[in-house]
Amino acid sequence: MRLEWIEDILAVLDSGSLIRASERRYLTQSAFTRRMRHIEEALGTPLLDRSRKPVTLLPGVKRLEPELRRTATQLRRLNDELRVSAGSGGRPLSFACLHAITAVFSPVIVQTLTQKEEGAVKVRSGNRDECLLQLMAGEIDFAVIYEIPEEQSPTTHKAFETVSLGADILVPVCEERLSDQITEGDIPVVRYPSDVFLGGVFDRNVAPRMPTGYRLVTKAETALTLATLQFVLSGIGMAWIPLSLAAAYLEAGQLVRMDHLFPAQDLGIVAVRLTEGAQRLDDRIWQSLIELRNLVHVSQPLPNGQTASV
């Protein structure tokens, strides 16, 4: 089945007649009718109900609409990937980021790579373990993830090579009205599950340093950092969010930093590639990432009026 055949069939399905379908396909009615007959001959089966006016598709063909649309989408995507691969001499460059990094820092990385490389760059988003698994499986060329400075990490294994791109801070923030209500006692919070990276960071590095007199009461839980941010903006509770993601809302006065009361946690941003094998990232592209060091940073006033540039 050819893509243009599927598109012709869908044009009839969407428009309801051969006349309007021919207009959609920028053909005369006679030329489009000949094309439909050619498709029927090539497939060896009728597609049109010519006993009705206007002529339209047979009921059995209409029932295949979901499969036709799905196949058309897949074929278009495949055609695009083949064109990109042919033009660049291989498959498109791809990398994966944690959700928060995708939202804030990936545009800088994509801009750098597209300026130096021909073809498209594919960006995936996921939890840290998912990013590393995709890297080891050869599904991506490199990953950009958070790490805890001076903490043992899977990326210290000899199978990986890392380069530091910058830093971030996991800070407690809440909606302005809620900040006025936070006193000792129960504090409503939005949490990350313990089995995702930021949830583990909170459990290991933040919770043990919580001041006495406060009890965190979970109001919502989600693995998506962007969803957590929206929950906080809605006033549901306080949450620990990467400063890079919260910075614009802090500057606008929609959120308030609470690390004058509660602990924050430094985060490192690193790019990771395999050290060897067929999927090892090209040295020239890796050098482009190394040149990004110190370009990825966060700068935001601290509660006491000082400035943090991390």
Descriptive notes:
The structure is a single chain. The longest helix has 24 residues. The protein has 13 helices and 13 strands. The C terminus is likely disordered. The chain is elongated and about 80 Å long. It is an alpha/beta fold and 310 residues long. The protein is 42% helix and 24% strand. Helix 10 links the parallel strand 7 and strand 8. The strands form four sheets. Strands 3, 4, 5, 6, 9, 10 and 11 form a seven-stranded mixed β-sheet that branches. Strands 1-2 form a two-stranded antiparallel ribbon.
Summarize the structure.
The protein is α/β, with parallel strands linked by helices and 310 residues long. Helix content is 42%, strand content 24%.
Task: Name the helicity range.
Answer: 40-55%
The share of residues in extended strands comes to 15-25%
Instruction: Write down the overall mean pLDDT.
Output: 83
If you compute it from the alpha carbons, what radius of gyration comes out, rounded to the nearest whole angstrom?
Answer: 27 Å
Question: Which structural class is indicated by helix and strand composition?
Answer: alpha/beta
- Secondary-structure element sequence? HHHEEHHEHHEHEEHEHEHEHEEHEE
Question: Number of helical runs?
Answer: 13
Query: What is the total tally of β strands?
Result: 13
Largest sheet: 7 strands, mixed
Shape: elongated
Point out poorly predicted stretches: 299-310
End-to-end separation: 55 Å
